[in-house]
Every structure is written in C-alpha cells, then in structure tokens.
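Problem 12. The chain below contains 311 residues. Write out its predicted structure in token notation.
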Amino acid sequence: MEKLSGLEKLAGSREAPKNGGWTKRNKTGFMYVCIWIAGFAIFQLYPFISSLIYSFTDYNIFDAPKFVGFSNYVKLFTKDREFWNSMRVTLQYTFITVPGKVILALIVAMILNRQLKGINFIRTVYYIPSLLSGSVAVSILWKVLFMNDGFINSLLGAVHLPAVKWLGDPGTAVVTICLLEIWQFGSSMVLFLSALKQVPKDLYEAARIDGASKPRIFFKITLPMISSIAFFNIIMQLITALQNFTSAFVVTNGGPNKATYVLGMKLYMDAFKYFKMGYACATSWIMFVVILILTLILFMTSKYWVYYYDE
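Solution.
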C-alpha cells in the first residue's frame, strides 16, 4: 500500500500539460498528418463524392450540370447494349485472370521456396514484371509480340505451326490481354513465398512420419496455412482486374468487334471522347457496386476456407 501511494503521489506531482494535453510534439505530429488528410480530401474524397453527384446529372464539361435523377442508370440498364457487352467482357476477363494469376503465383512461389543455387537472382527475375504492371510500354511490347507478323507467330512458323490471329480474332484477343495480366504475377508470388516460409516445419515432419503423400500434405497443411494470404491475393487481384483499362486500350483498342471492350474502357470513351461525364460517372459507380458485391461475397465465404493462426 505504501508503494502504491508513493506511485500515486509521483503521478500526481506531474503537472498536466496545458491546453488539454496539446503539446508541441502533438502539434508537430498533427502537422504531418494534415498533409495526408489534405491529400486524401482533395484527391480521393472530393472526386469520390463529386462523381456520385455527377452520376445523377447531364454533364458534358462545357455546360453546367443538369440534374436528371436516375436517367443515366436507367439508360445504362435498359438501352445501352455496349454497357452489357462491357460488363460481360469485364467479368470474363476477371474470371480468367484472377485464378490464373493466383495459381501461377503459388506454383512459382513453391518452386522458389526451395534452396536452389542463385535463388535470390531467380526470385528477382520473376518479380520484375510486376514492377511494370499497368505500364503502357509493356502493353505496346505485348502488342508487338502478338501481331500477325510478330515474334510469337515467327516462333510458331519456325516449328512449322500455323500463325494465329492473336489480336484479330474475338476469342483469342481476350486470352491475349489476359495473358498479359497473368504474366505480371510477381507481387502475389512474393506474398505467397513469404507465407510459405512461415509454415511450421514440425507440421511437415509429423505428416511425413505418418506417411502422408505430397498432395495430401499440400492440401491438408500447406494450403490451409497460407489460405489467409491466398484470400488477400484474390481480393486484390479481383479489384485490379475489374478496373482494367490499359491493356485493352493499348493492345486491342477494345476490338475486334468490341470483344475486349472492358468496362473501364467504356467509361473512358464516354467521359473523354463523347464528353458524357455524368453518364461515365454512373458507369463508374456501377463498377464500384460490382466490386463491392464480389468482395463481400468473398468475405462472406471466407469463413469456410480461410484459416488464421489464432483460431
């Protein structure tokens, strides 16, 4: 009791800072935070709210916006065939690239998790494509590679195989831009590699002692232990794929026959070619709702397949 009273006296002897604890250190910290708050408010929050308001208007940049209610949304869902085509293409693109990218990243991560000679250099080489993700230069390079007389068809000709219209056929054009996204798997691979290194080694030793096969070890130990990272990768790649624009615009320009006319490209064309800003804002909010719904579905189903260490 004496020690406790002594501590209380010591604490009571310290004078509380003036201005409700608003010290010089707090002021300095608040000044640094204000820079981020200002950037967030100006470049994210304001455009976010403005786009919602403009989605209910007829706005063409040059004239003042005119309130039209839900007309933009009604037109998108009932009269605009391009919108439904873009939605179909976007979902097709997403459901090809997300599983392909995540699975390929996991396979490469498992290979790179082995102790091989020069493994650090190999990991760097595999990660480099992700540094160029979304780059216009990479998209141009991809277009040159898959042209009718491009490098890929030259290789096919060298082994006496017929040339493929990678960018000229609606079926192969979608696959071509999907391959560009899947090729940039480096960021997901690094996360998987980090997760694989965190799996306790004694689990593998116990499984081998019990005579478990390698596929059984993978599905019963490895996959559950890295499921949280897999969940994160799927969420991030889903959001990225649904917002795709660069590859469709640069490589195929939405063609052929609008087979690669993704929702992001339609939004861009409506806004900056036809100057239908209000209409484009409505499209962007539909894209936001689609991303939100698919993300919520993943979160709701995650309790059935995602394992966390503290559970």
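Discussion. The first strand starts at residue 57 and ends at 58. Students who got a different answer should revisit the alignment rule from Section 12.3.
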